[in-house]
Specification:
Radius of gyration: 48 Å
Strand order of the largest sheet: 1-2-3
Strand content: 5-15%
Helix content: 55-70%
């Protein structure tokens, strides 16, 4: 091997072969060994590569690769934050409304924002709240009806007691 050169440079020698006729150069002859067997060398070429320039280019490519990776990671983090905010905000709103319903305010409903799972959950929550409102109204109406019946029965019992007392007084006077 012929190698040498100044400090920081690499000096390489390569054999030069004649160009084959167009279209007659098979792909397997691209390998150096096969190339040397198929053609005879016509000379040598001196190639000088600067290691400093090569190191600068490699370093520049490394910095570019790291920069692109960091930008993609930052972009991914922003997308994850936005996606989580998109899903967490409706859940927080629904949670706040659920707390109000738990405290007894059955007039609360949540706005259905989409047809996804959170929208379906919100719709079911609203249906549950409406069902609770209907049941509470039924219980209130039933309670009022029972109170009215109790009052009616109390009046009937008082009238019956008075009638019995009147009959007893009549019987005692006889």
């Amino acid at each position: 091997g012929k190698e040498g050169g100044a400090k920081g440079e690499g000096l390489f020698y390569a054999q030069v072969f004649p160009a084959p006729e167009k279209g007659s150069f098979p792909g397997e002859l691209l390998e150096e060994v096969k190339c040397q067997k198929a053609f005879s060398a016509i000379g040598w070429v001196e190639v000088v590569l600067s290691q400093q320039s090569l190191h600068r280019q490699v370093r520049s490519m490394q910095v570019l690769g790291v920069s692109i990776t960091l930008l993609m990671m930052a972009g991914g983090m922003v997308l994850v934050y936005l996606a989580s905010a998109f899903y967490v905000k409706p859940l927080r709103t629904l949670s706040g409304i659920a707390q109000k319903v738990t405290a007894g305010d059955l007039t609360q409903t949540a706005k259905v924002l989409g047809g996804d799972e959170i929208g379906e959950l919100t719709h079911l929550f609203n249906q549950m709240t409406l069902s609770l409102q209907r049941r509470e109204k039924e219980l209130t109406d039933l309670n009022a009806s029972l109170e009215l019946r109790v009052q009616e029965r109390t009046v009937e019992l008082k009238e019956a007691i008075l009638a019995i007392q009147n009959e007893k007084q009549k019987a005692d006077q006889l």
